[in-house]
Amino acid sequence: MREPGPDQVQTIEVATTPPTTVPFFTASGPWPEDGEIDAAYTCAGAGTSPEVTVTNVPADVVSLGLVLVDSTSGNVAHWALANLAPAEALVPGGTVPDGALVAVNDFGTAGYEPPCAEAGTRHEYLLMVYSFDQFLELPEDATSDDLTAAFEAAALDVAMSAFTVTAP
């Protein structure tokens, strides 16, 4: 380091630090990424909601929310939940965690509407899991549109996972 010049009080030394690798916040379900979901989770099977797993959630995250949409049909919402605890196994299959807000989906029912494709077609679905530094205050009869608007306004980050449903 050199001595300060006549107009300087001190000299600052710049040191470079190696970049740190921060794991990405991820979401996944019982399907290969961009692959076919098991029929048990669709209208062709039992129609049970799948387990959704979240990994590498940052320490400052207080709650999570999820939305499942059919991107082939104009982002029709099949499932929307808010105020989920940021645990490793976010949503066990077939259940809703205690304290979660369950939205009314685009089919007019609260909860999971199983993915379904018309005969001879293939639909692509997108699961989005949002992270927040707070719990969201929403009415108990909130719709998936209400949740999506709140998610997009308050989210720290979003993780996405995609799958398909093909009907014979």
Summarize the structure in words.
It is a single chain. Helices cover 7% and strands 29% of the residues. The longest helix has 11 residues, at 144-154. It has a single domain (26-166), classed as Phosphatidylethanolamine-binding Protein (Alpha-Beta Complex), CATH 3.90.280.10. The protein has a six-stranded mixed beta sheet with strand order 2-8-7-4-5-6, with helices on one face. Strands 1-3 form a two-stranded antiparallel ribbon. It has one helix at residues 144-154; strands at 26-28, 35-36, 53-55, 63-70, 76-84, 101-102, 122-132, 157-166. The protein contains one helix and eight strands. It is elongated. The protein has 168 residues and is mostly beta strands. The termini are far apart.
- Give the strand order, joined by hyphens, for the main sheet: 2-8-7-4-5-6
Which structural class matches the secondary elements?
A: mainly beta
Radius of gyration: 21 Å
**Helix/strand order, N-terminal first:** EEEEEEEHE
Distinctive features:
elongated, Phosphatidylethanolamine-binding Protein, 168 residues, mainly beta, 1 helix
Outline:
With 168 residues, this protein is mainly β.
How do the helices and strands line up, and which of them pair or pack?
Elements: E1 26-28, E2 35-36, E3 53-55, E4 63-70, E5 76-84, E6 101-102, E7 122-132, H1 144-154, E8 157-166
Parallel strand pairs: 2-8
Antiparallel strand pairs: 1-3, 4-5, 4-7, 5-6, 7-8
